Amino acid sequence: MTVLDSRPDVPGDPQGRIITPMEGPEALISDAGVSMAPVEDLGAGRGPFWLDDWLRANATDVLAWRRHIHAHPELSRHEFATTELVVTLLRAVGLKPWVLPGGTGVVCDIGSGEKCVALRADMDALPLTEATGLPYASTIEGAAHMCGHDAHTAILLGAARALAGAPELPGRVRLIFQPAEEVMPGGALDMIAAGALDGVERIYGLHVDPRLEVGSVGMRVGALTSAADLIELRLTSPGGHTSRPHLTADLVHALGTVITSLPALLSRRVDPRSGTVLVWGAVHAGQAANAVPQDGVLRGTLRTADHEVWTALEPLVASSVESLLAPTGVGFSLDYRRGVPPVVSDPDSTALMRAGVEAALGEGAVASTEQSSGGEDFGWYLEHVQGAFARLGVWSGSPAAQSDIHRPTFVLDERALLCGVRTLVHTALAALA
């Protein structure tokens, strides 16, 4: 059994501010987590020698870290025990991580020199109840790693400890363990504000993808994900009897007008090549069939793959809603919450990451991948520095084992963890060369 010190001296950040030690349970890795049989290393023998040696000796530890984090999920901005685990494992190999003032989120440099590339992983879980039946399933009701952030964290930990044992690095690798990816506008903004990108030339990240078979990495130049904004529209009316709608403002009719007309209107006001889509997720109004309600609410998400379109959407939605509701006499207030920008991988950074994937797993490992309408706050980093984001295949190949992320039944093939470690290490080396 491996027990990690749950109360290490927590270092301050580069500005010397005092960081309060995190509260949380013992960071304990169970016997089952450490004594399990190793999984196949699909990139074994591709080098460099120190990476091969490290993975031969520590592959089961990477799995154990992932299973421990999986069993002890923490929701956004509450990743205290996960942060503590990361700090402890980094300090154990002589690194000097620092924790963000809020107590979640870790930054750490490996190596020396002016040139610096960053590797990022997110740590938070989803507010879901797991239904996988795994022996290391979530022990926390209403919280589960159904988006693979446990894998992301374990992969970056593995890459960090492997890089820490490298004979020499041609520059610095910045590790970014980020909280709160699952909430808008995202914990990436906290990391940036704390200086996590200071001195960084390029940044790279991975996200698990259950549609890609293990051993493959999906990449593309340009937009990989979409900007994702939230819209909440609240309507008000004097109310009244449904037999006399002409004496009031028909709130439900007004809601229906916006529900059907706003998406159609936007499709005529925005370039269709931008992949812009508005979808409503919730509508609430009234109780009685014969009463015009006094208030109602409509909520939805607006997504686009085009950065220029994203900057223009808020005023366009506001003016469109006003025009649609003006004839109805219904009052309204619009709460438009900008979420995250699209993740747009630049050509040079993508080429370097492709070289890293090919060195790590072979030329056949690079797969094409589609642009998604999903949001990912990695896009905030790319507002400041160049970089690339890729999708890590985690599907075993069995149709019965394929389940999408954000579902209570999501599982991944743990061979992907070692593929991820190799990919991040080789990408960092390619970007620093």
UniProtKB/TrEMBL annotation:
Domain of life: Bacteria
Pfam families: Peptidase_M20 (PF01546)
TM region(s), chain numbering: none
Gene3D superfamilies: 3.30.70.360, Zn peptidases (3.40.630.10)
Protein name: Amidohydrolase
Lineage: Bacteria, Bacillati, Actinomycetota, Actinomycetes, Pseudonocardiales
